[in-house]
User: Which sequence fits this backbone?
């Protein structure tokens, strides 16, 4: 395989998010079609809950909901208004300001007690999935550098800049949330996350060594 093919295969595979204890949270790119290979990925990783952040128009005719034994939750974030013609920072603010209830709905699913692991996916596995995961990790107290590296490793659209620029954007967005709401947990509670749900999310966390971070491409 060429380096490009290898990189593509890595990005489309479901991969663990750093910072978790006994329960693992995965993130990844939504499949082009629901097939035995993708169902096998879920089974191999012990994934029993799948949170799909795509719009209905992005979903293939072979729905993931049909996979036996999978708790599927479709939570479209854009609500039919795709903000991809805006900057990455604007994209994040649109979701945080206007889609807070849907971001909370995704985190609420993660917080619900369930057997097995959970995966979060969207079309590219980057902006939407990355924002949900960044909110979760920041609330859990995971080191900011790990959060940034995890986010920047998945947002690869050329229009959003090099990985270093992407990293700076998510860092600025998290700083803005802290300045505006006192903390990311303050933001989550203000958007409807219950205290008991936040507590269950925090219980999922554990200190993560730097070696668990997905390799971040050079920013230059």
Assistant:
């Amino acid at each position: 395989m060429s380096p490009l093919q290898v990189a593509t295969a890595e990005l489309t595979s479901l991969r663990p998010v750093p910072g978790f204890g006994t329960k693992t949270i995965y993130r990844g790119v939504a499949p082009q079609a629901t097939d035995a290979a993708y169902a096998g990925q879920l089974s191999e990783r012990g994934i029993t809950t799948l949170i799909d952040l795509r719009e209905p128009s992005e979903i293939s005719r072979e729905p993931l909901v049909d996979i036996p034994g999978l708790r599927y939750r479709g939570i479209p974030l854009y609500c039919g208004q795709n903000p991809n013609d805006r900057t990455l920072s604007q994209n994040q603010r649109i979701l945080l300001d206007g889609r807070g209830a849907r971001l909370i709905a995704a985190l609420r699913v993660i917080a619900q007690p369930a057997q097995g692991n959970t995966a979060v996916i969207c079309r590219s596995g980057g902006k939407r999935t990355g924002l949900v995961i960044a909110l979760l990790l920041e609330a859990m107290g995971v080191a900011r550098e790990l959060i940034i590296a995890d986010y920047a490793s998945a947002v690869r659209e050329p229009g959003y800049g090099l990985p270093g620029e992407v990293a700076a954007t998510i860092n600025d967005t998290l700083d803005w949330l802290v300045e505006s709401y006192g903390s990311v947990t303050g933001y989550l509670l203000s958007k409807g996350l219950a205290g008991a749900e936040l507590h269950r999310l925090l219980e999922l966390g554990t200190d993560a060594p730097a070696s668990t971070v997905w390799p971040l491409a050079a920013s230059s």
The beta strands are 15-16, 25-29, 47-52, 71-74, 117-122. The first strand starts at residue 15 and ends at 16. Residues 163-181 form the longest helix (19 residues). The chain has one domain: 8-201.
